[in-house]
Amino acid sequence: MRKRSLFALGSGILAAGAATFAYASLIERNMFTLRRFDVPVLEPDAEPLRILHLSDLHMMPEQRRKQEWVAALGGLDPDLVVVTGDNLSDPEAVPGVLRALDPLLHLPGAFVFGSNDYRGPRLKNPFAYLVRPSSEYEEDQLKRPNLPTEDLRAALVDAGWADLNNARTHLKAGGRSIELVGVDDPHISRDDYPSVSGPIAPDADVHLGVTHTPASRVLNAMAADGFELLLAGHTHGGQVCVPFYGALTTNCDLPKSMAKGVHRWPGSDAWLHVSAGLGTHPTAPVRFSCPPEASILTLIPR
């Protein structure tokens, strides 16, 4: 009797695990969701400004459903589009990314890259990142395939979008002057904020800081310079979360409580929005209690 009970218990656990994995890999990771936030950073009586924040597409060539969902976001008619990296997961993925972004490319836009815009995926233990943040500059870095980074960069720049990889610029969007500063991915030590640092321009209406990885050294520096809204991705919102608890990791030094959504950046007046992103690493194609997302950030008066 006891053996039968233990067998039944074991069978039940295996069945529950299989069902959970099936849900996470086949259903939730394709439950694309639009999230909306109001962020109070504008001057009193200013008209709202809407930013569409996209991140972590991790695009594969055959992911037509994702491409069509992102393309449909053009119907939201945002004032500005900001993309915070990890667009690619395959050497043939650039056409898919551009197909997804095409209805948005006529709008004012800006972008930074993440590590997965430079090197392709490598098969690895998908749960290793729960123990420690991944290091993209491990000894096997050179074994990962090069991705067509410059093809993607050229297409976005040719469309008029600002390349913010260790750069600073101004653009017009929604009738406002917007100052933007960005860094290349801190996760692989490509960031060089000192080369673009400095106090915000007082004549700009909005000041945005942009990075793929929400590394504290970068966010602290941007906030200290006066940038009111910081945008990042990379965390996937934890990707596999515990219901009623949240993310188990952010894969960087960002607190787990800030793995996604809008938060005050500690010790400053800046707001931080971390996107949970729209994709997954190809070797860990699951999401649980953390559906893929894009966000509309409506900037409103303080």
* Number of DSSP-assigned strands: 14
Tally the helices.
Answer: 5
* SSE ordering: HEEHEHEHEEEEHEEEEEE
| Molecular shape | globular
Q: What is the CA–CA distance across the termini?
A: 67 Å
- Within CATH, the superfamily carries the name Metallo-dependent phosphatases
Strand percent estimate: 15-25%
Mean model confidence by pLDDT: 89
Domain count, please report it.
1
Would you spell out the secondary-structure blueprint of this structure?
Blueprint (H helix, E strand, L loop, with lengths): L1 H26 L5 E10 L6 E6 L9 H9 L7 E5 L9 H8 L7 E4 L36 H10 L3 E2 L3 E7 L2 E7 L23 E5 L5 H9 L4 E4 L8 E2 L3 E2 L13 E4 L6 E4 L18 E9 L1
Parallel strand pairs: 1-14, 2-3, 3-4, 4-5, 7-8, 8-9, 9-13
Antiparallel strand pairs: 2-14, 6-7, 10-11, 12-13
Written description of the protein model:
The protein has a six-stranded mixed beta sheet, with helices on one face. The chain has a six-stranded mixed beta sheet with strand order 6-7-8-9-13-12, covered by helices on one side. Helix 5 links the parallel strand 8 and strand 9. It has 302 residues and is an alpha/beta fold. It has one domain: 4-Layer Sandwich (Purple Acid Phosphatase, chain A, domain 2). About 6% of the residues have low confidence.
What brief labels describe this structure?
302 residues, six-stranded mixed beta sheet, 5 helices, globular, Metallo-depent_PP-like, Calcineurin-like_PHP, Metallophosphoesterase, Metallophosphoesterase_sf
